[in-house]
Amino acid sequence: MATALEARGHDLSDALWSARLLIDEPAEIAAVHRAFFDAGADIAITASYQASFEGLAARGIDRAGAERLLRRSVQLARDAAASAGGRRRWVAASVGPYGAVLADGSEYRGRYGLGVAALKDWHRPRMEVLASAGPDLLALETVPDVDEAEALVDAVAGLGLPAWLSYSIDGDRTRAGQPLADAFAVAAGAPEIVAVGVNCCAPRDVPAAVALARDITGKPVLAYPNSGAGWDASGRGWTGPARFAAEDARGWVGAGARIVGGCCRVGPAEIARLAEAVRGSGKPHRGRYRP
What we know:
This is Homocysteine S-methyltransferase. Keywords: Metal-binding, Methyltransferase, Transferase, Zinc. The protein is an alpha/beta fold. It has one domain (1-279): Homocysteine-binding-like domain (TIM Barrel, Alpha-Beta Barrel), CATH 3.20.20.330. The protein has twelve helices and eleven strands. It has helices at residues 2-7, 20-24, 26-39, 53-57, 63-84, 98-102, 116-132, 146-156, 180-188, 206-217, 249-255, 268-279; strands at residues 43-45, 90-95, 137-143, 163-167, 169-170, 173-174, 193-199, 221-224, 230-232, 237-239, 257-260. The strands form three sheets. The chain has a seven-stranded parallel sheet with strand order 1-2-3-4-7-8-11. Strand 3, helix 8 (146-156) and strand 4 (163-167) form a beta-alpha-beta unit. Helix 3 runs parallel beside helix 12, helix 5 crosses helix 7 (116-132) and helix 7 crosses helix 8 (146-156). The two termini are 29 Å apart.
């Protein structure tokens, strides 16, 4: 989302990142969703990753206004899905980690100094609003540590909506340094979590993580890494070369992934190539997971 918005000329250095355009230029968010659908995507992830009551309050937006913006993020994706036509498209409401609201790179470190109960209390109200807007599921994404994953799994219970849980990782560990086997086990017994996997990680880390997630949880697995560049939190920019190759997605599918895509610095052009690579791999193309 951010990559495509930047390509359209938007400065996203604001602390709200892509969520700023929910306020200023929502039509641009809808246009980017449509661009990804036109490129071959089946699932849109809403522009709510960095939208929070606290972050929006800092911009002078009260709670009622924040709730309207969160619902708008879902509606924009839903409208783009309806306008795309053809096969069924899905809307995943993004629930970013607590670290995202800090806008200091904390989502790549975790260990915020908050316990599971406090993190649950922080996440649940936003999740309730997003769920009420009618997405197909919640995307609990870019989770850096096990404590936050436990809080999110607790918070999603009772919402009446399925969710996926996706970690940001470094090698065979979470960004906070915990073993991935422990991280994936958090979701194993949670009926609301219908898929588990990784995102916003280096592409090279995907195959082993996918295989482990499949073996630990027995659930469908997803993978949407970033381009392989590194994030400079102080300079608020990406560094290093891109290493995202659409053809690698065939290996992710071979390792057990049911949903594949791209995160930061992966735009519609890369998704078009990825869709072509996967759908031409001989693997069946499947829609929404049905328990």
